[in-house]
């Protein structure tokens, strides 16, 4: 089906807005359209606003119109309607359609809530503290844990990780905050600009998702003062800090719950003042645990004391770590979609918005990041989260396309067309500013490492890195990936960082190259995405911002191929084309280019 070229960018190239007016710009090929409209619903009824032709961009026509943003709700939806020769064409956030699209795919703009602009400029690095770097000797680590918790199992750095069924959560390798501090120069040389820490607060496990004290750094990681010093040194490197917050549930050893009944906790004590902090069945000891897990009792946000403690009061946990001397730059909220009142997450949206308000009341530019393993559309309309851990809109489709596995490690086989459709649909459902603030990862502490999924295939890893560093959203590298650290299912994906392998790693320079490209090219940080080519195994897209673009070409097939690129669709006057991966490549730029690609390879051009 041949459709006309029609495109709208929600960057500064195609969108300007304030509280009173939205101005949109549309690009089309040079056809004699009978009518061009932008369609809005200010009072839930259709209004068609005429668009005027205002100029040209290369071989493209430019159309423009203005309208008032919705006054009764945060999000304004709009979509474009074009008529020609008895046919109609609609442009929604996925692309050109032949009929009016459902509202979920209309372009979205939230003029009242915008994510902090600094997020899209970052390259994040995720640190699992116990496995990243240890500042103490093995004997000192053993002695410290023996004093702190005799049930802990201390293992030599680099030993195999035990399974959860055995001793996995109780195994410690001694990574700590001082160890992170000692590696800040390394992280700076790698090129990352923001650090996301898995939980650092007091907890009996190595993963710390079972908190016992939200106001205290776990003693085996360090002290609050040491964390304050680390924060200052991280800021001195011009890096950002995001902490992991586990507010849906606590440890059974939290004083509020107190499963060992050492104090006044809720377990076994129906008269406890903390009883209503959790969900008990009458006066029994039956309670709701996260996903049925008994050692993670779920908090009851209907209780005002819980609300005060977590987010509501000026002394709340959320606000405490955003203030001096720590001044962290944001929160990653664990399983944020599950918290609320009862086991059905009642009033979840209210509490997520409250978390946002509490965070922004201290620092309006703080990053509010939610963890969602699946679609997070409803939390990403601007009034709740700035971004999500983008499993659904990035990690899942990339894994399916390149590694041929889904998130449950079942086989899946999708081609490039299905891959593109998945990406487009996920993006189209949320405002563009939130798309840019999505946290994109190839792997994390909850998934097998990508290098393991592709059996160490360097060409596939390079293609995956190309997607990570050039696709819409903010990239995040899971510690150790940059030196080829392997890892299967959790907890095997939490192995110790192999510091003795840095010099011999074949991967480090590759990661450094991609990080440098990402940081140098503004279109990769905040540009729109324009698809130029898509077949079963070949993809090409451009990230465009102003007069500059970066063109990404991918061939996933095992054979050489030729990719045709309609460069005229970018509407740019190009004076220089630079190959970012191969400085010997010469590019003859013209309106239509045919590019030869070797098997399982990628190319990257910068257009100015």
UniProtKB/TrEMBL annotation:
Q: Spell out the GO cellular component terms annotated for this protein, sorted alphabetically and separated by semicolons.
A: cytoplasm
| UniProt site positions, description: Transition state stabilizer | 446
Q: Which domain of life is it from?
A: Bacteria
Q: Name one GO molecular function term.
A: alpha-1,4-glucosidase activity
Give GO BP annotations, semicolon-separated.
carbohydrate metabolic process
- Record bears the keyword Hydrolase: yes
Annotated catalytic residues: 334 (nucleophile), 371 (proton donor)
Q: What is its EC number?
A: 3.2.1.20
One Pfam family, please name it: Alpha-amylase_N
In this chain the Glycosyl hydrolase family 13 catalytic domain maps to 126-518
Hydrolase in keyword set:
yes
CDD domains named among the record's database cross-references? AmyAc_CMD, E_set_CDase_PDE_N
The enzyme class is hydrolase
Q: Which UniProt keywords apply?
A: Glycosidase, Hydrolase
Q: What protein name is recorded for this chain?
A: Maltodextrin glucosidase
- Organism, by scientific name, is Vibrio alginolyticus
């Amino acid at each position: 089906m041949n459709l006309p070229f029609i495109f709208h960018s929600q960057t500064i190239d195609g969108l300007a807005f304030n509280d009173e007016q939205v101005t949109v710009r549309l690009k089309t090929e040079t056809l004699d359209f009978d009518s061009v409209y932008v369609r809005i619903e200010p009072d839930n009824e259709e209004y068609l606003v005429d668009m005027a032709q205002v100029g040209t961009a290369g071989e493209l026509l430019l159309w423009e119109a203005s309208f008032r943003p919705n006054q009764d709700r945060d999000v304004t939806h709009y979509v474009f309607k074009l008529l020609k020769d008895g046919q109609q064409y609609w442009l929604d956030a996925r692309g050109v359609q032949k009929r009016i699209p459902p509202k979920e795919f209309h372009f979205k703009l939230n003029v009242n809530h915008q994510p902090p602009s600094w997020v899209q400029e970052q390259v994040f690095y995720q640190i699992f503290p116990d496995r990243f770097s240890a500042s103490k000797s093995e004997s000192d680590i053993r002695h410290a844990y023996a004093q702190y918790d005799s049930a802990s199992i201390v293992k030599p750095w680099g030993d195999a990780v035990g399974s959860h069924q055995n001793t996995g959560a109780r195994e410690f390798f001694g990574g700590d905050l001082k160890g992170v501090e000692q590696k800040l120069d390394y992280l700076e040389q790698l090129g990352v600009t923001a650090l996301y820490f898995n939980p650092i607060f007091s907890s009996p496990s190595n993963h710390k998702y079972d908190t016992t004290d939200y106001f205290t750094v776990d003693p085996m990681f360090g002290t609050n003062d040491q964390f304050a010093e680390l924060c200052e040194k991280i800021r001195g490197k011009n890096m950002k800090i995001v902490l992991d917050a586990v507010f849906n549930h606590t440890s059974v050893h939290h004083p509020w719950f107190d499963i060992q009944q050492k104090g006044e906790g809720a377990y076994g004590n129906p008269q406890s003042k903390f009883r209503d902090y959790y969900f008990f069945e009458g006066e029994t000891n039956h309670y709701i645990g996260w996903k049925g897990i008994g050692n993670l009792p779920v908090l009851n946000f209907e209780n005002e004391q819980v609300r005060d403690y977590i987010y509501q009061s000026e002394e709340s946990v959320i606000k405490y770590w955003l203030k001096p001397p720590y001044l962290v730059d944001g929160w990653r909220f664990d399983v944020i979609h599950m918290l609320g009142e009862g086991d059905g997450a009642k009033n979840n949206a209210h509490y997520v918005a409250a978390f946002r308000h509490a965070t922004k009341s201290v620092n309006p530019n703080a990053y509010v990041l939610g963890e969602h393993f699946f679609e997070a559309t409803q939390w990403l309309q601007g009034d709740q989260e700035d971004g999500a851990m983008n499993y659904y809109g990035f990690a899942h489709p990339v894994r399916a396309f390149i590694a041929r596995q889904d998130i449950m490690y079942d086989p899946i086989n999708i081609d490039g067309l299905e891959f593109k459709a998945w990406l487009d649909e996920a993006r189209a459902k949320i405002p563009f500013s939130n798309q840019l603030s999505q946290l994109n990862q190839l792997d994390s502490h909850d998934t097998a490492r990508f290098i393991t999924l592709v059996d160490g295939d360097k060409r596939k890893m390079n293609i995956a890195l190309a997607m990570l560093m050039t696709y819409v959203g903010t990239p995040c590298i899971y510690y150790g990936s940059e030196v080829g650290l392997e890892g299967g299912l959790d907890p095997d994906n939490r192995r110790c960082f192999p510091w003795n392998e840095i010099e011999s790693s074949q991967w480090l320079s590759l990661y450094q190259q991609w990080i440098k490209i990402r940081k140098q090219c503004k279109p990769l940080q905040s540009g729109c995405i324009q698809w130029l080519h898509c077949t079963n195994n070949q993809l090409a897209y451009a990230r465009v911002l102003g007069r500059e673009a970066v063109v990404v070409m991918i061939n996933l097939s095992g054979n050489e191929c030729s990719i045709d690129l309609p460069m005229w669709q970018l509407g740019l006057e190009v004076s220089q084309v630079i190959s970012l991966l191969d400085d010997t490549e010469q590019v003859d730029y013209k309106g239509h280019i045919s590019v030869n690609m070797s098997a399982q390879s990628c190319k990257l051009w910068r257009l100015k």
